[in-house]
Amino acid sequence: MSRSGTVRLVVPVLVAALLLGGCGTSRSGDLGPAPTAPPTSAAPGSRPAPVPTVAAQPTPPRPPTDRPPRPSAAASSGTRRPDPVTIELWYVRAGLLVPTRRTRPATVATSRLALAELAAGPSRAEAATGMTTLLPAGVEVTRIADGVATLRVPSVGDPATRRLREAQVVWTLTQFPAVRQVRLDGAAAVDRADYADLLPPIVVAGPVPGERVSAPLVVTGTAVVFEATVSVRVLDAAGREVATGFGTASCGSGCRGGYRVVVGWRAVREQQGTVEVYEVSAVDGARINTMAVPVVLAGGD
């Protein structure tokens, strides 16, 4: 074979090799791997939005160090630490149910966590308001099926005490989407409506006792009050009134509705304070059905 014939044969082979090598390279760049299909959350028939081109920025030089930085546990395992979970707990105050909250590390056993926190009892700030718990330690859910949580609750005490204890469990567990009803000691399943009479006229969901608050403060909860009017005032450590406000619940007299009242005040030094949520009497204008929540007023400029 002549030299020119050899060159004609080699050139196509080299071109084919280069093309095959290009097809085998990874389709990735500075923005990460290129998408090969629309995300599962995309609507049927929709296209993924184009990814904008971002100019690469030079990496600043790393200062000299004697030892390399220690990677975090999440980075070394390739997983992100789960966010904490906030749960609602229903304690007893003056023979009625009142809520508070706890923020704890995330867990798959949320019902066990909620019942353990409920049995542990109120914090110091919560106990100062009269909150207490009637649930002993060790109570656990044995089964959750078809929206019904099954468990056994000690039946000690008089009927009123036992009913309050059951109400604590029912109102605490039914905050979770997987639990609509609770079956206690093999009886018929019950829900929150079966214990609605154990709520005070005004329930304060937030703020909770001991919480650090600042202006503007959002006060939330439920109420069944005259003309659905809920009033709020904020007191400083000396008992002086620093803010007032009122709002309307979503349901009028004779029915319970949710409310949301926003109040603001001038900057104060950080100190103990009190948020009072109350109803104005239709008879003499006095404050009635007052729920007092001790808080910490955050200082401001």
Explain what the structure shows.
The protein has helices at residues 3-23, 73-77, 110-120, 124-128, 159-173; strands spanning 28-29, 32-33, 85-93, 96-104, 141-145, 148-151, 181-184, 202-206, 212-213, 217-223, 229-235, 241-248, 257-263, 271-280, 287-297. The strands form five sheets. A five-stranded mixed beta sheet has the order 9-15-14-11-12, with no helix packed on it. The model is unreliable at 2-69 (pLDDT under 50). The chain contains five helices and 15 strands. The longest helix is centred in the first third of the chain and has 21 residues, at 3-23. α3 packs across α5 (159-173). Residues 39-57 have a biased composition (Low complexity). InterPro entries: GerMN (IPR019606), Gmad2_Ig-like_dom (IPR018911). This is Gmad2 immunoglobulin-like domain-containing protein. It comes from Micromonospora parva.
Strand count, sense and barrel status of the largest sheet are:
5 strands, mixed
Uncertain ranges: 2-69
Give the count of helical stretches.
5
Anisotropy-based shape: globular
Mean pLDDT: 81
Structural class computed from helices and strand pairing: alpha+beta
Q: How many beta-strand elements?
A: 15
Instruction: Encode the helix/strand succession as letters.
Output: HEEHEEHHEEHEEEEEEEEE
Strand content: 25-35%
Major beta sheet, strand line-up: 9-15-14-11-12
| Rg result | 31 Å
| Terminal CA distance | 92 Å
Helix content: 10-25%
